[in-house]
Design a protein that fits this description.
8 helices, about 5% strand
């Protein structure tokens, strides 16, 4: 939450600092470009920012200046800097939702929306110190290319044949996910500053499996996504990515609806084959 603060920049320019979680090096560089290296001094310029607003993209600011505003003593510019601009999250969230809805309909354009969304989320995950989630999003971009090609080849626009995996294959895949998660989590805990190494790893490797199942049009992919998205609600909320936490809560509902939709199509095709 941004609070009311009083401060001035060298030749009377003002800068609004970001939340405590913001990356200081990037912010400092922006301030240096604005001020030309002038020292920060408190006073003279006051910014009044409301603690709560309905629309984070339109925040009213009240500015008060302790200056005679004469030719010799006046404010030349006021700069408001907030490093955590929400727009990348908003755009990625919308595209991620479009991906799921199109995937439910088995429309190949879901991969285009998903690829762009994943590229944005990779950047945000790196900033939030979730390296495994960032790596996962890069994998999603690659899988989006493959998924679009594979669904196009199998006439995705008119729908593909939904298939299932035997239980033995699921057990083997889940065991591999757990082992890979433990190994990567231990490395992350030792070598990086990852916030949630074990949960981050488990959701990452599980998502790799689930994405492959989507690309191969396997019915069970939706059940994996229900569990993964539920875990991601907590993970993103813990890292203050509240928009994505809310979005993943919605994903849980959509994933379950996707399972019911695909299951209905799967049973219909099987019934027609038997008859």
């Amino acid at each position: 939450m941004i609070r009311r603060r009083d401060f001035a920049l060298g030749a009377a320019a003002a800068v609004l600092a970001p939340p405590a979680r913001a990356e200081r090096p990037a912010l400092d560089e922006m301030v240096r470009r604005i001020t030309g290296g002038a020292a920060l001094r408190p006073g003279r310029v006051t910014l009044d920012v409301p603690p709560l607003v309905e629309n984070g993209n339109a925040v009213p600011l009240a500015v008060a200046v302790d200056s005679p505003m004469s030719e010799a003593d006046h404010v030349r510019a006021i700069h408001v800097v907030n490093e955590k601009n929400p727009q990348p999250q908003v755009i990625s969230a919308v595209l991620g939702l479009a991906y799921l809805l199109l995937a439910m309909r088995r429309n190949r354009w879901c991969w285009v929306a998903g690829g762009v969304s994943s590229a944005m989320l990779a950047y945000l995950s790196l900033r939030a110190q979730l390296p495994m989630q960032a790596a996962l999003q890069i994998y999603y971009v690659a899988m989006s290319v493959y998924g679009y090609w594979y669904w196009s080849r199998t006439s995705a626009q008119s729908g593909q044949a939904i298939t299932v995996w035997p239980a033995s294959r699921h057990l083997l895949a889940c065991a591999a996910v757990v082992v890979a998660s433990i190994l990567s989590a231990r490395w992350l805990a030792r070598e990086t500053q990852a916030a949630w190494p074990y949960l981050d790893s488990l959701t990452t490797w599980g998502s790799l499996l689930a994405t492959w199942l989507v690309a191969r049009v396997k019915l069970e992919n939706w059940l994996y996504w229900v569990l993964i998205d539920a875990a991601l609600v907590f993970l993103f909320a813990a890292q203050a990515l509240y928009l994505f936490a809310l979005l993943n809560a919605l994903y849980v509902v959509i994933a379950f609806a996707g399972f019911l939709s695909w299951q209905k199509s799967y049973r219909t095709v099987r019934a027609q084959a038997v008859s």
